[in-house]
Design a protein that fits this description.
This protein is of the alpha+beta class. 59% of the residues lie in helices and 9% in strands. The protein has 21 helices and eight strands. Strands 1, 2, 6, 7 and 8 form a five-stranded antiparallel beta sheet that branches. The protein has a three-stranded antiparallel beta sheet with strand order 3-5-4, with no helix packed on it. Helix 14 runs antiparallel to helix 15.
């Protein structure tokens, strides 16, 4: 668990064997390569061909269903296959566009019926132009110089026909012309039926083409491997028939790299990172908290010498989500949805880690909802077992404010404690401890009522900032000017008190959002009850609709608030106090395609 320790590895070999060595190193997949020289420009690949293959893959990925795939070694020609897929894509797009156009014209003609227009010469070169004019705009007809006629009326709309050889100007009437066209509505319906059949046939062809999806995906992976290999080759040092490649390797994989070097006759140097080095960061949280690492990397990668906050982010995000949702009934919905989609989520590593996070959120939200005594906004009966478990009153403002502030103080304390534990200087350690003392002294002064406790809290409010100033001033002195800089740093450090105060108060959003969710649920329940009482019989239906709509909206708002603010408190408040600097993610030089021999593209294919 935590940040994986890395070793710096330098490989040296003969230039004539560099391509083979780098290909083997890519297959080994343990090294984060470092550029030993500025990389030169890569060979120019055909971007159009690559985009065509990627577009074809996306078209097949978006297919409504997939056919059983052909074997990976089934022979195929790339260019003709990609051409067929893209032709299918273009054909489907044209058909759907035509279907949308036909549907719009059919709907526009619905108020007019099935009009069959006579030939133009029989009408003396005149055409009919249709308008749906609001009755209140009827006065506009009196200003027309063209012949017109009201042929029908629907509600407050007048069906107006204007006669003119050419299309009238747009400003003729206060409304736009109805795009009727010259084709009868019945003919448009027949054409739309034929278009829908053609769409079904094109979709069937698309499903048949999905049999080649694995081959295209492998081709793209192999082409990407080829480009990575070319990029790696451009970053090595080549001198006097010898090349050198360097990178970072997890300590547990050093033996594998040593075996690789011995098998290829390479010189290998393994070194510990120096104080000046900035190695990349490879997070390795517990498997069940992997989603915490994904959330952490989404916003910020910790520096190599920092600490891994994944486990804390995992737990605190679930807790904050539960406090914002604040209802056992809503939490049960999440639990049921997670159970229903559990197997489907388990099809990918991301899904497996995500479902664990969902299960944790559901469990914690159910526990907190039971503690709040809220079940879709309803309170359990008095003297019931559930009522005895309801120990949190979200309507008790003082208690909920204290709970939210203490949760925030604890969260930031964990960040500061981790920073002190991993502190690389006495200054960082003392400063972090000073902020912790300041936080809890302030909490004590607010919540503690006895005189002794208040005296201790007051002393802590003096000692805490003093430690912060002392920590900021713990720098090596080098003359009077340097001493003045230290004094200035100490005074400047005190400005962090305002930030600390604001960040701790920011956790009040847990109370405010939880209260809003509970109040909305109660309001919708009361509204449904009032409607049911006021309208016996039919009121039951309206009450059900109010409950479904109201709780649905409230549930969605709770989900959005839980995600947004649960992440915000981790990313903004927590990270700003616990992670002093940002690192570089560990990017392993590894093959995407599963097999070198089976998937390595030819020089011509690699350009795609």
């Amino acid at each position: 668990m935590g940040i994986v320790p890395l070793k710096r590895a330098t490989l040296c070999g003969i230039v004539s064997e560099k391509a083979e060595v780098l290909a083997g190193l890519q297959s080994l997949g343990v090294m984060h390569l470092v550029a030993l020289r500025e990389a030169g420009p890569l060979a120019v690949h055909d971007p159009t061909a690559q985009r065509r293959v990627e577009t074809a893959c996306r078209h097949l990925d978006d297919a409504p269903r997939s056919a059983r795939a052909f074997a990976l070694d089934a022979p195929f020609e790339l260019a003709p296959l990609v051409g067929r897929i893209l032709d299918n894509r273009a054909h489907l797009k044209a058909l759907r566009d035509r279907d949308d156009e036909l549907q719009a014209r059919i709907e526009a003609l619905e108020p007019w019926g099935d009009i069959v227009f006579p030939p133009l010469d029989e009408m003396g070169g005149q055409r009919l132009w249709f308008y749906l004019l609001p009755a209140k705009e009827r006065a506009a007809l009196g200003k027309l110089t063209l012949p017109w006629q009201i042929v029908d009326r629907t509600g407050n709309l007048l069906h107006v026909v204007v006669i003119a050889p050419d299309e009238p100007p747009p400003e003729l009437l206060p409304v736009a012309r109805v795009p009727a066209g010259a084709v009868p509505r019945s003919a448009l319906k027949r054409e739309r039926d034929e278009t829908l059949i053609a769409i079904e046939q094109a979709e069937a062809e698309r499903v048949e083409l999905t049999r080649w999806r694995p081959q295209l995906a492998l081709h793209l992976a192999a082409a990407a491997d080829s480009r990575d290999l070319e990029s790696a080759a451009s970053q090595t040092i080549d001198r006097d028939n010898v090349f050198a490649a360097q990178g970072w390797v997890p300590a547990d994989d050093v033996r594998r790299l040593e075996d690789f070097a011995a098998a290829h006759g390479l010189a290998l140097l393994i070194e510990e990172p120096s104080a000046e080095d900035r190695p990349p960061t490879l997070l390795a949280p517990p498997e069940k908290a992997q989603s915490g690492a994904e959330l952490t990397r989404f916003y910020k990668t910790p520096a190599y010498r920092a600490w891994d906050p994944s486990l804390v982010v995992f737990g605190s995000f679930a807790l904050f989500f539960a406090m914002i949702l604040g209802d056992a009934g809503y939490a049960a919905v999440i639990a049921v949805a997670t159970a229903v989609f559990w197997r489907r989520l388990g099809r990918s590593p991301e899904g497996r880690s995500g479902r664990i996070l969902l299960a944790t959120i559901a469990a914690m939200a159910i526990v907190y909802g039971v503690a709040c005594g809220s079940y879709f906004g309803l309170r359990p009966p008095k003297d019931s077992v559930l009522a005895t478990l309801a120990v949190v009153d979200v309507h008790n403002f003082d208690a909920m404010m204290a709970l939210s502030i203490c949760v925030g103080a604890l969260h930031i304390t964990i960040a500061l404690a981790a920073l002190a534990w991993k502190g690389h200087s006495r200054s960082q350690v003392v400063t972090s401890i000073g902020w912790i003392v300041t936080i809890w002294s302030g909490i004590g002064l607010w919540l503690v009522e006895d005189d002794t406790g208040k005296m201790l809290a007051t002393a802590g409010l003096v000692a805490g900032p003093a430690l912060v100033v002392a920590g900021a001033m713990m720098q090596e002195a080098a003359g009077p000017r340097r001493l003045m800089e230290r004094i200035g740093s100490g005074a400047l450090a005190l400005s962090g008190i305002t930030k600390l105060f604001g960040d701790v108060l920011s956790y009040l959003r847990l109370f405010a959002l939880g209260l809003a969710s509970a109040s909305l649920a109660t309001t919708f329940n009361a509204l449904a009850a009032d409607v049911h009482a006021a309208k016996p019989g039919v009121g039951v239906l309206f009450a059900i609709l109010i409950l479904a709509f109201g709780h649905g909206i409230n549930f969605l708002l709770g989900l959005m608030s839980g995600v947004v603010h649960g992440l915000r408190l981790n990313f903004i408040e927590f990270f700003s106090w616990g992670l002093a600097e940002e690192g570089t993610p560990f990017s392993v030089f590894a093959r995407r395609a599963p097999s070198h021999d089976a998937t390595q593209p030819s020089s011509q294919e690699a350009q795609a």
